[in-house]
Amino acid sequence: MKYLKTYKKIGLENDLNALFDYFTKTLKESIFTWDYFVNWKKVSDNVMKVEKELNLLNYLLGKENIEDEFIRLIKEYPDLKKVLPILIAIRKNKLAGLRIITDIKTMKYSQIYTLFYNEDNDEDMLTFFRNSGLKDIFKDRTIKNLVDYCYGVEVGIDTNARKNRTGNLMENIVNSYLKELNERYDFEYICQVNSEKLLQTWGYEIEVDKYSRVFDFAILNKKRNQLFLVETNYYSGGGSKLKSTAGEFIEIERMLKKQGIYFVWITDGLGWKTALNPLFETIKNNDYTFNLELVNCGALEELLL
Fold first, then answer.
1. 3.40.1350, 2.40.50, 3.30.930, 1.10.10: CATH of 5-35+161-304
2. What is the DSSP letter of 271?
3. DSSP letters along 24-93, please?
């Protein structure tokens, strides 16, 4: 750790244990906002893209000779095939690698992707219609309207994105601090930056541990010719990820420090209560590890200026 005047301002002496104690006691229980739960715009946009096709498929609901009607409708409107995956809650981009076992004993499988993009495969389409459960659901009118049904499917799929939204929330919070500081001081910053973007934007050529490495923020103090690379994350719960991330960021700190680059890690969440040792080691070995409380108290502002 590097001692900052901000630490003294909040009553902390130049002592690792004191900083660690303050850090863990001020971890945030939540950073969630109401839009964390469901991204309604995304849900609505996705449904609107296929609303016409869904209304055409509504014709099948409650039909007696439903298999014949299903094939007839698919032949008349071939684009309906591309809508069928969403009815079983699977995205188009997930189809390519998806294989369905057709014989348990031999483990024979078929590739589901071709179902929805090949022509003249009536029997295969009927197999899908029956075995996926859609035939029974359509026939007994368990579903009253496929547009409404797909809203429910999209909400369900969207909840899987909450993990990513947690990361985005943390980035948004830090970004709001940076925007405010940027209005008062003369520095530049960019979001979601890799080594190539750094070179193109500011002419900085840096060595990274892997080509795919992307930092949440890069900040340039032109007056001092100082480059800061920032990572942010939030952990509401525990898990092995916390320990591995802490170890990874210690190594990143060492790598960047050799190049004269400052590395800042802003992390928060009660999940750290389950991984205190890795957190302690990171605060000890890295110069600048902040939580949101420290950022709010001025630690990031002091460092950048």
1. 3.40.1350
2. G
3. HHT--S----GGGT--HHHHHHHHHHTHHHHHHHGGGTT-TTHHHHHHHHHHH-GGGGGGHHHHTT--GG
Structure tokens, 198 = 């750094």
* 152: three-class secondary structure by DSSP: helix
* Residues 271, 289: Cα–Cα separation, whole Å: 16
The one-letter amino acid code at 279 reads L
Q: In what order do the strands lie in the sheet with 188-193?
A: 188-193, 215-221, 226-234, 262-268, 288-290
User: What percentage of the chain exceeds 90 in pLDDT?
Assistant: 70
Write out pLDDT tens, residues 238-261: 889 999 999 999 999 999 999 999
Does residue 299 contact residue 290 with C-beta atoms inside 8 Å? yes
Question: How many residues in the chain?
Answer: 305
List the beta bridge partners of residue 103.
108
One DSSP character per residue, 207-263 reads --SSTT--EEEEEEETTTTEEEEEEEEE-SS--HHHHHHHHHHHHHHHHHHTTT-EE
Q: How far apart are the C-alpha atoms of 110 and 103, rounded to whole Å?
A: 10
What CA dihedral angle connects 15, 18, 21 and 24, to 10 degrees? Answer: -60
Q: Which residue has the tokens 């359509």?
A: 138
Considering only 111-120, 191-200, 209-218, which range has the smallest mean pLDDT? 111-120
From-to residues of CATH 3.40.1350 in the chain: 5-35+161-304
